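Annual report, structural modelling task.

Input specification for the guanosine-5'-diphosphate complex:
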Amino acid sequence: TGKATQVKLVLLGESGVGKSSLVMRFVNREYIENREPTIGAAFLTQKCHLDDRSIKFEIWDTAGQERFHSLAPMYYRNAQAAIIVYDITKASTLDKAKSWAKELQRQANSGIVIALVGNKLDLAEGESEDDNSSTEDNERQVSEEDAQAYADEAGLLFKETSAKTSKNVDAIFTEIAKKIPSE
Ligand code: GDP
Ligand code: MG
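The model returned the following structure:
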């Protein structure tokens, strides 16, 4: 037991990829369709309990950095962790995610734990193994293999998630927590 390790975590990624929805799912266990866009930045906290210790995430859900890129360093400075989100149904959002990864690896804390997250996995449901029927509901534009290969090469954690169904949302935060060095 003892005090939780506090970890500042920043979310980055193009507007509309689901950053706020992921945080709301992780912190409040809810998903609201067509939520109001984030103005400025939202700050939320949530604990993550590991076998041997607890991590308290202090989460900065940013907005505006999408248009006003110069604001971003204010949020990622001093961050020990970052989640870079793209939308698996929109290939251009992965390009943006890659440029965020490069920027963080150059400019952020040297020990920062970075996770790449491909969100909106529920929109690629048509590909599930027990569904051989049609893939017309599958809106996927980025393959899991390509994104995983990029993440491996760049040294990023990686998961595909759905804020809508909650798939892998807790899992990615737990993976990040495990990578945070103990105090
Ligand atoms: P942000 O701009 O990155 O913070 O994105 P938001 O969280 O505001 O989400 C943008 C839009 O995508 C909203 O209409 C959400 O309802 C939708 N969205 C977010 N996550 C998911 C998801 O996992 N699946 C689906 N189908 N839609 C999502
Ligand atoms: Mg938002």
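The longest strand covers residues 41-49.
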